[in-house]
Amino acid sequence: MRSVFDNLFPLAGRALISFIFILAGYNKLMGYAGTVAYMQKAGVPGYLLPVVIAVELGGGLLLLTGFLTRIVALLLAGFTLLAAYFFHRNFGDAGQFVQFQKNLAIAGGLLFVVLYGAGRWSLDAKLR
Predict the structure, then answer these.
(1) Which long-range CB contacts under 8 A does 72-76 form with residues at least 24 apart?
(2) Measured between alpha carbons, how far is 21 from 89 in angstroms, rounded to an integer?
(3) What is the b/e burial string over 3-27, where b = at least 16 CB atoms within 10 angstroms of the residue's CB?
(4) Are 26 and 57 spatial neighbours (Cβ–Cβ below 8 Å)?
(5) How do the pLDDT tens digits run along the chain, 128 residues long?
(6) DSSP code at position 1
């Protein structure tokens, strides 16, 4: 018999990982002009910001609810690695290095979600 933790932990893990994407997407939406300037300073075209917001907010919400979870987790892992490369590769700056490592850890956690799925308390499981 499965324990409650077998059901709770995948949900908790998805919630904890999705929170950073939902909050980041919301903050970019609220600080749109500043985010465009930051992106352009890093050499990323500002016109990509709506895509970034959609990936972060939409992907975060899909991950949280456990809908299309493996696909979303894979896309978010790739997105997170790209963000690490474009925005956190100045390893001479200790803060940037920590952000780079954080992105690697998030991508690693997302790869576990790709492998193991959303768990029983998810829309994916309900729709199966």
Answers:
(1) 73/110, 73/111, 73/113, 73/114, 74/110, 74/111, 74/114, 76/21, 76/110
(2) 20
(3) eeeeeeebbebbeebbebbbebbee
(4) yes
(5) 578 888 999 999 999 999 999 999 999 999 999 999 999 999 999 999 999 999 999 999 999 999 999 999 999 999 999 999 999 999 999 999 999 999 999 999 999 999 999 999 999 999 98
(6) -
Task: Look at the alpha carbons of 70, 73, 48, 83 in this order and tell me if their dihedral is positive or negative.
Answer: negative
Amino acid at site 60: G
Listed residue (55, 56, 19, 49) closest to 32, CA to CA: 49
